[in-house]
Amino acid sequence: MVTVSEIARNKIVELRQKDGLAADYAIRVAVQGGGCSGLMYDLQFDAAQQPTDHVVEDKGIKILVDRKSLLYLAGTELDFSDGLNGKGFQFKNPNASRTCGCGESFAV
């Protein structure tokens, strides 16, 4: 299961409103090959749920994860930081054996 922190939830709602998207738009979280550690996170709004998607709702946010990505993301929390050490969404992934310095790619 993928969860969102309260801070990430608030940022998702803010961005969805800023982009003029309806409240039924979900967040699609996926894993793709690439980055300096081998795998990269992909995060985007999506209104189209696929038949093979794993769907979860946390704090009022609908989260879509494809089957393959779910293997890498189980137990992950999506967080958001806007501090001096970096700004943006962060993935707290217990499955990652290492991450790159920018936090956008990982290995298992």
UniProtKB/TrEMBL annotation:
Superkingdom: Bacteria
Pfam family membership, one: Fe-S_biosyn
Matches recorded under InterPro entries: ATAP, ATAP_core_dom, FeS_cluster_insertion_CS, HesB-like_dom_sf, IscA_plant_cyanobact
Domain Core: 2-104
SUPFAM superfamilies: HesB-like domain
Coiled-coil intervals: none
NCBIfam families membership: iron-sulfur cluster assembly accessory protein
Protein name: Iron-sulfur cluster assembly protein
Organism: Spirosoma utsteinense
